[in-house]
Each structure stands twice: as structure tokens, then as C-alpha cells.
Amino acid sequence: MAEFVDAFDLARTTEARYATIAEEPALTYDKRLDALVGAIAEYLAKQRKLGRVPPWVGESARYLDQPWHTCSPANAAMREYLTFSSPGEFASRNIFTEERPLRRARGLQST
């Protein structure tokens, strides 16, 4: 996933970025993963203002029937936080995650 997001972000133009998400990836038949891929593609398209979202992200296989909180089931406070902070592209698919789900740690830069 990290390599994909890096490739998307390194694309030089809006069209090149869109091209990285335009083709539908094959379904894995892991419901969570298939829904997550749809959420990520829609999120990237909207966050990076590509002007369009690939049509495949709206397929029914890209949505979960049951909620998935990306934290321990025993952590009720975190589940509540994720329910309210999750971006719409994820929440609409019943995926509840942090408000900036694709945030990545960056190494310290030398001065």
C-alpha cells in the first residue's frame, strides 16, 4: 500500500496520478481489503483534486456490510473516535479509521 501511495504522489501531473487509480484492481475476495482499495482510490482522487473518481470504486464489492473499526475491538473509546473522525470515503464503506488514513511517518531530514 505504501509503495502505491508513493507512486501516486510522485506522478508529475493530474492525468498521471489519475492513471495510477483508473484501472480497477482485481478483487481479492477479502471483503475488507477490496473495500479498503475502493476507499483509498476515492480518497486520493478527492484529496488531490483530480476532478473525477474512477467508476469502479462504486461497485458493490467495494463496500462492507458490517462496520470495520481499524483498532482493537476492546478499545471502546478508540472505536468511538474512529466512528466520528473517519473520512467520508471510508465511512461510507463502513470502514472507520483515523482522520488522515494515508499519513506516513517521514524520516528526519538533515539540515
Keywords:
111 residues, two-stranded parallel ribbon, 44% helix, disordered C terminus
Give structural notes.
- The protein is mostly helical.
- The protein has one domain (2-96).
- It contains five helices and two strands.
- It has helices spanning 2-10, 14-22, 31-47, 76-85, 88-91; strands at residues 68-69, 95-96.
- It has a two-stranded parallel sheet with strand order 1-2.
- The model is unreliable at 107-111 (pLDDT under 50).
Q: How many β-strand stretches?
A: 2
Low-confidence parts: 107-111
What share of residues is helical? 40-55%
- The largest beta-sheet arranges its strands as 1-2
Count of DSSP-assigned helices: 5
Rg from Cα: 15 Å
Summarize the structure.
This protein is mainly alpha-helical.
What's the SSE blueprint?
Blueprint: H1 2-10, H2 14-22, H3 31-47, E1 68-69, H4 76-85, H5 88-91, E2 95-96
Parallel strand pairs: 1-2
